[in-house]
Amino acid sequence: MNPILKLKTAALALFLIATAVAPSMATPKPEASPASTPLDGVRRIVFLGDSITQGGDYVTDFECWLLAKGVNAEVLNLGLGSETAADLTPQENDGHLKKYGFGRPFVSERLDRVLAATKPDLLFACYGMNDGSSLPPDESGLKRYSEAITRLRDAATAAGVKRVVLCTPPAHDAKGKAAMKFHDDNLARYSAWLVSKRADGWDVVDIHTPMRKALDEGKAKDPQFMFAKDGVHPGREGHWLMAREILAQFLHADLYGVANAEGLFPAQGAEIRALVNQRMGVRFNAWMSKIGHARPGVAGGPGAKPGLSIDQANERADVLTRRIPPMPAAKP
Predict the structure, then answer these.
(1) pTM
(2) In a domain, 15, yes or no
């Protein structure tokens, strides 16, 4: 072979080899950081609401999911029975006062104290059931509800809450009583307004729509089907639906095939959930006593037996926590 041609051929071969191996010799690109989640940096989560929240099954179910996922965040249930988002007039509160001996409390009376004492990173608020039975069944009632919810959200944001999640109220079951249809009509109006606020960047979980759909479908198959015996307070099935919607819509949880909170755990689900619920009750009584409110019959209210101090409640909670089997750490 011609010496010059031989040299050109060798040079070409070296170039091709260098080109082929260059990518493998290059400095690898750093991996992209994992996407942030709504729970990043969250250490304390507070739930506000009425008697459905105070009853607490959906809040316990929510905390069970966190536990099953190894998420280390404290959950405080500070719901209060009879409470409304809007301030009622004496006339609007008169029926409750005559029936139960006290008027409905308003969240505005205690909200600032709740935020200052607990300093939550994440706040859930679920109001409307009591407003729906108390406020006028027209646009004036919707205006007062929407203004009250807006004030709640603004106050929480101003207090440093990282994210405020507003939940539409559960469905009301009129059980065929035409005189009570206005109640769920109000709740539907409140829910539609809340969902519309997603367009303004609000965090909104829609509980009302899937519960209304499930209730209607259930009654179509069995007229006796219900979530709530009294039409207002759901049982465990209804509370699991509430928790499931919060987890799926806000935290994008995959709950396919999970029938209840007990099913979140590979074993001892009932025992674990009972411990979580007991621990939540200890914290509830302590924090409600510290914050105070206007409703009789609940720790922190007039004439009610106070709960433990916060320090004592934390000690009791730690004892219960040690009885819960360890869970895997959260995946990055």
Answers:
(1) 0.88
(2) no
